[in-house]
Amino acid sequence: MAIERKPRTHRVVVLALAGLLPFELGVPHRIFGYAKDPAGRPFYEILTCGLAPGPVPTDADFAVYVEHGPELLATADTVVVPASYELGPVYEEGRLTGELAAALAHIRPGTRLVSICTGGYVLAAAGYLDGRRATTHWASAEHFQRMFPAVRVDAGVLYTDDGDVLTSAGVAAGIDLCLHIVRRDHGAAVANEAARRTVVPPHREGGQAQFIHRPVPEPQQASTTAARAWVLDRLHEPLRLSDLARQEAMSVRTFTRRFREESGVSPGEWITAQRVERARRLLERTELPMEAVARETGFGTAQSLRKHVQAALGVSPTAYRRTFRAAAPGAAGPRGTAPSPDGPSVAAGSVH
User: Fold this and answer.
1) Residue 183, Cβ neighbours under 10 Å: how many?
2) Torsions phi, psi of 301, nearest 5?
3) Residue 62 has pLDDT above 80, yes or no
4) CB of 263 closer than 8 Å to CB of 257
5) Are 105 and 137 in contact (CB under 8 A)?
6) What are phi and psi of 282, to 5 degrees?
């Protein structure tokens, strides 16, 4: 059945394969479905297809009914392949079945390709990941690398972004990757609203470790949660490790070890990521000069702001603002007159 494209929307087609995980099948629909412009118009149209129309078995005690066959892939701007536990030769031998190869042949050149968890096996078996950096669930990473030696597997990250091909680790990392795509396409404000509607954290960097040794503190054991909350209220100030450790009554050495165990990154890396995220919001929502944005975010100078934004986002602050400023909800009027979403202007600070 032919599907007419809705005007001005980016079509995301999710490929449902036998043995799929229902949670991961629903992630693209949930995240992309909440990405809307200020007037409430959706940025994405999300559709699902299978290797044939009809019921698709899942890893649960129910099947899902898919209305569309693989021909729908030819209409996609983005194709998402969620995880499946019944990949057969794809998982066991690193090769596509004839039916799956025929389905993927519908994908047009230039279509953005996305995998969640072991969905990366499908992209790898089709050759889309050759020479590229990719990830999958940490428990499958070693096997994935053996099956596909041409892929540069990074088992220690939540997701990878190689332009038109993106991969993620398991389950919740698929949420992170979809939010990252929304953020890349339409800016932090739209992605944050999608995260708020879904009641999930708005941003976890792709480079964050997917296997965190202590995601939840053990009973009667101190965590670093209070220090992180303390930091978020003071990103504009100079921050020292000793100040953070003091919030938890720990030595610097103990605090640093515990912080990495709980968050997967060092305190300095985490603080920089939070400052970049605040800079994104200010660049999208205000017309503050770059020096003021640098002060508000704790980078101190426009040069330091450019360095960190360029490293994190691949573009300069000016280019980022030019891309997302006009479409941002709640955009400021005259220069500097809009209130910052993060509070009043404060003195410059730096990371120590």
Assistant:
1) 23
2) -130, 160
3) yes
4) no
5) no
6) -65, -40
Helix, strand, or coil (residue 227): helix
Determine the angle formed by the axes of helices 172-186 and 188-198, rounding to 10 degrees: 150
* Assigned token pair, 94: 């690193």
Query: E strands within 31-71?
Result: 44-49, 54-57, 63-66
What is the greatest pairwise CA distance in the chain? 65
pTM above 0.85, yes or no: no
Distance from C-alpha of 270 to C-alpha of 312, rounded to nearest angstrom: 12
**Identity at 53, one-letter amino acid code:** P
Q: CA 307, CA 275: separation in Å to the nearest integer?
A: 12
The amino acid occupying position 81 is V
Question: How many Cα atoms occupy the beta-carbon half-sphere of 83 within 13 Å?
Answer: 21
pLDDT in tens, 192-245: 899 888 877 665 655 554 544 444 555 445 688 899 999 999 999 999 999 999
Question: Nearest-5° angle of CA 181, CA 331, CA 29?
Answer: 30
**Cα distance from N-terminal residue to C-terminal residue, the chain:** 60
115-149: per-residue pLDDT in tens?
999 999 999 999 999 999 999 998 899 999 999 99
Tell me the C-alpha to C-alpha distance, in Å, between residue 12 and each of 29, 125, 227, 253, 270: 9, 21, 39, 46, 31
Query: 137 by DSSP, 3-state: which?
Result: coil
Question: 277 versus 106: which is more confidently predicted?
Answer: 106
Do 122 and 81 form a contact (C-beta atoms < 8 A)? yes
Nearest-Å Rg of the Cα atoms of the chain is 22
